[in-house]
Amino acid sequence: xxxxxxxxxxxxxxxxxxxxxxxxxxxxxxxxxxxxxxxxxxxxxxxxxxxxxxxxxxxxxxxxxxxx
Length: 68
What we know:
InterPro entries: Brinker_DNA-bd, Homeodomain-like_sf. This protein is mainly alpha-helical and 68 residues long. α1 crosses α2.
């Protein structure tokens, strides 16, 4: 399927950089274009800003696979 992206994990340093960029412009779409990420992802990171800033810089979201 064309246009489908591979799932990507971002570290907290990158997320903080995106959040600061967005807060200066107050425009999620501009961050989407600048960093090549979805606007929904930017909104989620802004919502969870306190958790992201207080966490370690290298923390990435972990996906756990369960065999059923």
